[in-house]
């Protein structure tokens, strides 16, 4: 039993000898028509650091490498993946399940925004309902022959991240950060949650690392000196990529054309994902 335990086993990821006798296996089954070989969760300790952007670039990059790629958008209250990929309309629902919509580059995507009458409609649901929707996306969508699925997680360490970690067969985490001290501190919370849940962290990706001036070719650290390398080293991790502030990338995302952006900047992250083995939960 951990210090400060409130004996509410249903909201705890610890596997201690004092757990109550209720169900401790929360894994959600994959649909009968679905095959997903590898699942990578993209997480952050807070919002606004570009987690969805990194998810989109990773999916785009893996598709370019010839992998059948998917995104499960678990950020139910703030979904941005469909807009980033230029996906509009609603998915087909068959008797066997929900058919993911596909981007121009062949990425299969399921997101809450696809199911709303209006993409700007607010989702005013409490945590348990949101978590249940994520499990439905996993179990009731038809994920056909997926080599790599990326799960775009909501920020923080609340109900949905806990549900994903307990319910989906996560093979590794990519933690997204930015250069500021405050963000570096909050990223440590995400890493510690992963440690508690026995989830392997593959490495860190720093977004908004610098701005490359088109006029003089110099790079400027607009948010100050990066602390991400130090945070990664402290936890025995690697800083896999540093993504610049690029107005061209922002414009492509706004137009739904993220798949036109070069993924050279994240090639080391893609290599790491490809080499990641299946993770056996203990």
What report would you give on this structure?
By secondary structure, the protein is α/β, with parallel strands linked by helices. It has one domain: P-loop containing nucleotide triphosphate hydrolases (Rossmann fold, 3-Layer(aba) Sandwich). It is built from 8 helices and 12 strands. The longest helix has 16 residues, at 181-196.
Major sheet, described briefly? Answer: 8 strands, mixed
Form type: globular
Total number of beta strands = 12
Strand order of the largest sheet: 5-6-2-7-1-8-9-12
Determine the mean pLDDT.
85
Report the C-alpha radius of gyration, rounded.
19 Å
Low-confidence stretches: none
Could you say how many structural domains there are in total? Answer: 1
Q: Give the end-to-end Cα distance, rounded to a whole number of Å.
A: 18 Å
* SSE string, helices as H and strands as E: EHEHEEEEHEHEHEEEHEHH
